[in-house]
Specification:
With 332 residues, this protein is an alpha/beta fold. The chain is built from twelve helices and nine strands.
């Protein structure tokens, strides 16, 4: 009887003492059961064109089979098109997102399409203008407005397929500049002039720091979830004053209020975050795209879908296990 009671008490106290450990270990358990690299869903792609106020915006849609899907807008870099970023569009859509790749006329492939090879660099540099920036920041809300209309139109192919209350934006290079602008960046006296409050999370591939070293003023107020990705060799031939060390200044300036993340890939050059090359070819580290896909997917799952397992994964050791020696992952 005494031995039996002692055994029961021993078991009771063992369970009691384990409760905090189980509670603290729950994120790790959730993280272990979560894998953002898996994508088994079917994806439908569609090309659509829209226009507003006489300006055209070609779109490429990556659509999951399910209805009412969270939406991710994708903004290409300088000289790109709606076809850029397919490696991300296909994966995110297979994970249940409706991905809308926008083409920004004036800073897209059209600027170099008919230019002689020797003049393409000059054409690209000319297209990296304030006018192109303004056009892009107008494209984004116009596309959101159009998607809202199409989603409500029972006769349209997008009818009921979008959940625009769960809206994110991502972009590379000039697309990152665009994404920063519409998701909270301040511009001196203009403040958050270009911000669209309908956007809930943003992913910047090769972000750009502010001019004049005013990064705290520019980014220090941002509460929205932001994920930044860059590389130790992420410079720009179009903007030679933007060095790799400048790109990380954006993350450094963000407030430590949670839901802020940064990935720095060792030896990754500017085009490592794209699925194309610019003005020539370059060697790719195959693990870079794998890491970009995994971490970005977890980010969307956590901050658009509200997936607790995804957030636990982001806050565990799992992201670093997807990286290689010299890569840096941090959050705050």
């Amino acid at each position: 009887m005494g031995m039996n009671l002692r055994g029961k008490l021993s078991t009771y106290f063992a369970v009691l003492s384990a409760v905090p450990m189980l509670s603290a270990g729950l994120p790790a358990k959730d993280a272990a059961a979560y894998n953002p690299s898996l994508a088994a869903g079917k994806v439908e792609t569609r090309l659509l064109d829209m226009d507003y106020k006489g300006r055209k915006v070609p779109l490429k849609l990556y659509l999951p089979t399910q209805k009412n899907a969270p939406v991710i807008l994708l903004s290409h870099g300088l000289g790109g098109s709606r076809e850029i970023g397919a490696y991300l569009g296909n994966h995110w859509a297979a994970r249940g997102y409706a991905v809308v790749a926008m083409q920004h006329i004036g800073s897209d492939t059209s600027v170099i399409k008919d230019a002689p090879k020797a003049q393409r660099f000059r054409a690209l540099k000319k297209a990296a203008s304030f006018q192109s920036f303004t056009d892009r920041t107008k494209d984004v809300p116009a596309v959101i407005d159009q998607l809202t209309q199409w989603n409500a139109d029972k006769a349209h192919l997008l009818s009921g397929r979008l959940d625009l209350s769960k809206l994110g934006i991502g972009g590379h290079s000039f697309g990152a500049v665009t994404s920063q602008a519409v998701s909270g960046q301040k511009y001196g006296r203009l403040g958050e002039r270009y911000t669209d409050k309908r956007i809930k999370a943003a992913l910047m591939l090769s972000p750009s720091s502010s001019k004049g070293g005013k990064d705290k003023e520019t980014f220090g107020h941002i509460q929205m979830p932001w994920m930044l990705m860059t590389g130790t060799k992420d410079t720009s031939v179009i903007k030679p004053d933007m060095k790799a060390e400048d790109r990380v200044k954006v993350y450094q300036a963000l407030p430590a209020t949670g839901n802020k993340y940064q990935l720095v890939l060792k030896d990754a050059k500017h085009m490592a975050f794209s699925d194309r090359s610019m003005l020539g070819t370059q060697h790719r580290n195959k693990n870079h795209h794998k890491a970009i896909i995994a971490l970005s997917t977890a980010f969307w799952d956590a901050h658009l879908k509200g997936d607790a397992q995804a957030k636990a994964w982001l806050h565990s050791k799992a992201p670093k296990q997807r990286l290689q020696a010299g890569d840096t992952w941090e959050r705050k």
